[in-house]
Amino acid sequence: MCCPGCQAVANAIVANGLTDFYKYRTEKSQNPQQSMDELYETLSLYDKPELQKDFVKQEAGSLRQASLILEGIVCAACVWLNERHVMALPGVSEFRINYSSRRATVKWDDDKIHLSDILKAITTIGYVAHPFDAGRQEKLHKSERSRAMRGLAVSGLGAMQVMMLAVAMYAGESQGMDAGLRHFMRWISLLITIPVVLYAASPFFKSAWRDLKYRQLGMDVPVSLAIGIAFIASCWATLLNQGEVYFDSVTMFTFFLLTGRYLEMMARHRAGQASEELIRLLPVTATRVSEGEEQVVSASELQLADLVRIKPGETVPADGVIVEGKSSIDESLLTGESVPVSRSEGSEIIGGSINIESPILMRIDKIGEDTILSSIVRLLDRAQTEKPRLAQLADRVAGWFVAVILLLATAIGWYWWQHDPANAFWISLSVLVVTCPCALSLATPAALVAATGQLTRMGLLTTRGHALETLARATHVVFDKTGTLTHGRLQLEDVITLQDQPRQQVLKIAAALESASEHPLAKAIIEAADKEQLTATDISAITGRGMQGYIDGRLYRLGKPDFVAELGADIGQHEAFRQQKTVVALADEQHLLALFVLADVVREDAYDTLQALRDLGLNITLLSGDQGPVVSHVAEQLGIEDAHAGLLPDQKLAHIQAMQQSGDVVVMIGDGVNDAPVLAAAQVSVAMGGGSQIAHASADLVLLSEQLPHIVDGVVMARRSLAVIRQNLIWALGYNLLALPLAAMGMIAPWMAAIGMSASSLVVVLNALRLTR
Amino acid sequence: MNILYLLIPIGLIILGAAIWLFIWAVRSGQYEDLEGPAHRILMDDDDPMIPENAAKKAREKKQQE
User: Fold this and answer.
1) pLDDT digit string (tens) for A217-250?
2) Is A80 in Cβ contact with B8 (below 8 Å)?
3) Beta-bridge partner residues of A286
């Protein structure tokens, strides 16, 4: 056990007889970070009716239902533990966790138990649960998913049945079949195909109709034409009991296409879920101070000019000004700045940033829509709507193809009308069906599904359909610095010892002094120090300057060089001060003992990745919100020539747009909230998996593995899949060009057409499967 | 081959039932979480199923109420 908290968790688990958790868990649980009492106080706020109205659904009597986001769920054992533990509470009638989305729904009887008790119960076993408003988007996704599933079922089962009958009819063609039975089978096929076409394929018709209304020829137009014409002609043939039927092709084709769309939709939804959690950047509760009394209220109740107390480690609830106290504030999520900035009375602070060092009192100046966070969200929305709609390769080809086919079919029909009116309809129909763009419309999705599947296994999640195609054509890669090329947190880069004490010894002293501090600098030093620690006494923190304390009776100071020097040591001049780095000094009353150089360390694989990207012929640019010297240091280390520092989100946006104006296809890689608008504006964007949720929401690809080399793999895979798509398109067009003249001359028997069509689709799919190897 | 006139419509009815069953499963949310059940089945909660334990549990429950 590392601390009493963990022991309490273990006790709660053992006392409830849930020790199986330890048996089944495959990953270690996370440490609860906040102290329990404080958390309980916050949780009890969730019982307030005004807060509950946002996310709690009232049901019959005192029964209520809410959705929860669960943090800390890492494996199936966690799901099991939570479900068992909460279900054991009296008054809880239902508690189910969705393992894929880490969401839970809970149903309880408000007379017997309160929501806060349920949340507390979850907290006692070491997880954190927040209620959330399932929201419009989530409901929309759910119904979209369910609709797609039902379409798949109808078309899939229908296709199997129709295919079975079709095989019988093909066999009957050569071995002889009772004409009555054949007619009967056709009617059955027609009956099965009706729901497939009218229900399962309706998304294609709707989208084609939309395309036509905007005078475009998208891929859905030929798809709808193929399905529609083949179906109507087959119905016609069935009714008149002459000609040929193509029900098998219609259903199979619908099923294949729906499968592709379904997989694409699932990837998109998974990425979209993350955006729901964006709201959580702002805290749910705040400590309001009125007439000297502190009161915990829900953040949505805050009014302009309210005074709010913010303890270290808490998040600032809205934009405002500090009226009392001095602290360092972590604004990295919003500005990309990696080092917390020092803020004192009178300086403005931004909602969503985190107070690091000491308690402050702030006055709220802006709430809701006026805050900087909401303006970033608005910027993101705008950039997303302005995103150039990239005409897809297949769409462009298909548009021409459809136009040509329609003209040809009319011309051929007209020719035969002149010479042999009886056969004119059937011949022009066979032209249309033979040239059915099955293979053509499968060419792109099949390759994309295969490639995205392979990339997902590697840890690069594709969230938008166009991402790979555009990635393959990219000419320019733009990186953000913090959290992308670097780890995004400070690490100890160097220890300069000035007296004859060894490195480990000074580190131990420093770690002892910093042991109580929450400051990122402190964390970096503690992380680097040995496990066995010295103990410092009488530690006092001087905000914005450093720490002081006694170890073995000697007074030490750690912090800014001038602060440390006040003890009496001569700090002199040192090389490290002149470099633009974060330097922490350690001194006793006589001497300066050591200097600790801290920096946001560049990822180990960054250099090789950039080199590999250059070898692929891509230009590289670094755009950062960080200060100039830090940026140029990183750029130098990685050999980036085109680096820009101190950029605000809209400046980054302007930079990217300028590049696009000059014809570059830009890939943007970033992680923070400040990158979101830029990510949305770039033709292709990649967000780091550990980055902010809003960055995920606006990105086309999410690098879940956090391994930069996978970006290179992504580009290579994208280029390979583009090559495969080209091969597929050429094959499909070639097949059609060959079959068309034959059909036009009336030489193609229907079974030949069917086999040709299936074979050409099969070739396309098999070719796409090469990408998975 | 006259039997086909009966068998094929029967097949059609079964097909209809299969589709209805699938749609019911989708509507009742059985396809919402495709990963969880795979793990859940490995957690054998059979302790309370063992007669001795089940009796003990029932006694405890009675005491609580």
Assistant:
1) 666 776 787 788 888 888 988 998 877 788 887 8
2) no
3) A297
